[in-house]
Predict the 3D structure of the following.
Amino acid sequence: MSSTVGQTEAGYLSLADCLAISPFARFLNIQPRIDGDCVVLKLCFAEHHIGNPMIRALHGGIVASLCELSASTLLAFQTRAPSMPGTLNHNISYLRSTIAADCYAQASIERIGRRTATLSARAWQEDVENPVAISRLTFRTKGVFDVSDQPPD
Amino acid sequence: MQNNLVDNLSANAQSDRLDILARYFLTSNLLFESLRLEFIHFDASRAEIRIPFNGEFELASDEGLSTGILTTALDSIFGLVVLANLKQLAPVATIGLNVDFTSTPRRGESVICHAEYGGSSEQVAHVRGHVVGEEHGKMFAFGSATFMIGTRGPAINPIS
């Protein structure tokens, strides 16, 4: 688990450029940071992230989108894919209520196969040890990149 | 599973409640305004909303609506259907959501989200639904969600 959230901008590499061209990533107001092999995405809070204005909680779909982007970005980054992989399935469990504040997500690769890849992701706000949501995602890999170039699992 | 609680309300009361919920859904926050949601059908058992294409929600330029926005739309309409089935309005929160993506909308294509109430038991409600293309009805995603009823936070009162 990365512990560098909130540190200098030095860790924000060219991945930022990849996300900058994504309209949806811009809508989500996401900043990526690379720390070694880890990619942490930061959802910079904006009012349009609120799902229920009465309790000022982030929308579950916004948190899900953050987890999904963290996983697809990691997969694309690790595999040097020319485009973002297509999502086949997303299963997310919401563990805690969220607050109107920044949210972070980090994904990890469980397995990259010939046709699909399975990743997990977790999102947190104030405490990295207390995630607000955990995700399991499956992506299509066939046609996105040459699987022979993949690093070992 | 308990019965659809809204069945116990008078027809007028049900209609008023659904109108209030629909208005609240469309005007309560910036996210839903950004999505430019339009109701096609809404009753206690099911809801249908249209999401017009918006380039702001493409994952990459010149692509269709992102899977993330389809997930967001499904979660939104699922929650609405749960609220429509509560005897007394109370906060609800998604505790689990599963979505399968079968294909991707083309650039410029608007989508229709469907949600159907699946029942509730002991403060947990279940909903299922899918997303299809407006033009040809092609399936883009289907999924289900589980909601906790009466979560922490102030009670929702869209009238005030």
Q: What stands out?
A: The helical segments of chain B are 11-27, 30-35, 67-84.
